[in-house]
Amino acid sequence: MKLFDAELKIMEILWKEGDLTAKYIAEILNKQIGWSKTTTYTMIKRCIDKGAIERREPNFICHPLVTINDAREYETTELINKMYNGAADQLVASMLGSQLLSKEEIERLKQVIRDLE
């Protein structure tokens, strides 16, 4: 499921904090980025319509139906398909070639590869 940046703002709060009221999410986003309650409720409704959030009563409790790992997997697959023609190794090679990874991150990648073998 594709989540746009504004929808991810809602999801990030729920992934971090767990189930919350829409009102409390609106308060957090007002403080963080200046969103009005209406803007936050609109974004929550979009997430509900997509099936990313479930509304629970009483008090309009928002419960995430999509995990952060689901969202990461989708976005990573989209990036690999869009920019690397489906070749995950080219993404890793690009990251290594541009030195975006620390030595510790490279070691963790090596361990992931060893675990896959």
Describe this structure in words.
With about 120 residues, the chain is mainly alpha-helical. The chain is about 70% helix and about 10% strand. It is built from six helices and three strands. A three-stranded antiparallel β-sheet has the order 1-3-2. Helix 1 crosses helix 3 (about 35-50) and helix 2 crosses helix 3. The relative contact order is 0.12. The mean pLDDT is about 95.
**Count of distinct strands:** 3
Radius of gyration: 18 Å
Mean pLDDT: 93
How would you characterize the largest beta sheet?
A: 3 strands, antiparallel
**Neighbour order of strands in the largest sheet:** 1-3-2
User: What is the molecular shape?
Assistant: elongated
Unreliable stretches, pLDDT < 50, 5 or more residues? none
Characterize this entry briefly.
It contains six helices and three strands, in the order H-E-H-H-E-E-H-H-H.
Helices and strands, with pairings:
Layout: H1 5-17, E1 20-21, H2 22-33, H3 37-50, E2 53-56, E3 61-64, H4 68-84, H5 88-97, H6 103-116
Antiparallel strand pairs: 1-3, 2-3
Helix pairs in contact: 1-3, 2-3
Can you give keywords for this protein?
three-stranded antiparallel beta sheet, 117 residues, single chain, 3 strands, elongated
